[in-house]
Amino acid sequence: MSSKTLIAVVGPTAIGKTRLGIELAQHFGTEIISADSRQFFKEMQIGTAVPTREELDTVTHHFIQHISINEPYSVGDFEHDAIAKLDSLYKSHKTVVMVGGSGLYVDAVIKGLDNFPQVDPGLRIQLNKNLENLGLVSLQDELKKRDPNYYEQVDLENPHRVIRALEVSISAGKPYSSFLKQDKPIRNFNAVYVGINAEREVIYDRINQRVDLMMENGLLEEAKALYSFRNLNALQTVGYRELFAHMDGSFDLATAVEEIKKNTRRFAKRQLTWLRKNEQIIWVDYMYDLTTVLNQLQLN
């Protein structure tokens, strides 16, 4: 058994993963790998809840705002880069902490990615045209027909994820989810998942408060500065998409804010659906005591 350990802090959005990740990193004298795909981009900060300057200065973080929204960066790229970073960190640390709201990205590092069939580029172009002409709901409905299992797991508000699942399902003639149970590479570290959870009302209240705080901190101004890039994949995400719709005249600002809250709550529900399938997760309450968490993890 490897003497190296990766502690993955997971849970729904706004639950307190950053705080627990920092406390664990401080306890073990180590560094943090961010596995939150929304926080990779330099141009996005408020709407992605990037850790504060104080938090970033407390513990060294990796993969926070390290690329531009104009750069293509896939989960495969992240898997490769994160494994390389872990190999480097394990030369001086027995334990590393990973904090992530993106379950796919966390699992890519710990379990490895699946091998998918080649996809006709023309199919992707057609699906993107369908998105533009028919809307996201039409693609969601198609995915539900072709792969109801993955439909229950995927972030349905993310067109990039929905299109990816559809192009694989159509090209292979079988569900995207059927490719998610293949043999995975062997990692040179042990992985421990710790998940933070709370009652649904608590999660929703924390989400609502976070969105209000984001608006107070200038999310609208940030979205305005990014409006010309609104068609990039990086910006097809909750928080920005609703404000872009407001700028396009689809609804007023108050409605846009309520849409952000509603869609973020839906996102949190999907995050938990994904995570609850993982029986390895050690769940702790959002009002955790660090000593209790460490005892549950049973790490020296």
Automatic annotation (TrEMBL):
Assigned keywords, A-Z: ATP-binding, Magnesium, Nucleotide-binding, Transferase, tRNA processing
Cofactor or coenzyme needed: Mg(2+)
Keyword ATP-binding (UniProt): yes
Subunit details: Monomer.
Gene3D superfamilies in alphabetical order: 1.10.20.140, P-loop containing nucleotide triphosphate hydrolases
Known role: Catalyzes the transfer of a dimethylallyl group onto the adenine at position 37 in tRNAs that read codons beginning with uridine, leading to the formation of N6-(dimethylallyl)adenosine (i(6)A).
Protein name listed in UniProt: tRNA dimethylallyltransferase
Annotated positions binding ATP: 11-18
Residue(s) at site: Interaction with substrate tRNA: 102, 124
Reaction(s) this enzyme catalyzes, per UniProt: adenosine(37) in tRNA + dimethylallyl diphosphate = N(6)-dimethylallyladenosine(37) in tRNA + diphosphate
Lineage, opening ranks: Bacteria, Pseudomonadati, Bacteroidota, Flavobacteriia, Flavobacteriales
Enzyme class: transferase
Family of the protein in this entry: Belongs to the IPP transferase family.
EC number: 2.5.1.75
Interaction with substrate tRNA, as annotated region: 36-39
Coiled coil regions, renumbered to chain: none
Keyword Transferase in record: yes
InterPro entries: Dimethylallyltransferase, IPT, P-loop_NTPase
Encoding gene, per UniProt annotation: miaA
Sample GO molecular function, one term: tRNA dimethylallyltransferase activity
Positions that bind substrate: 13-18
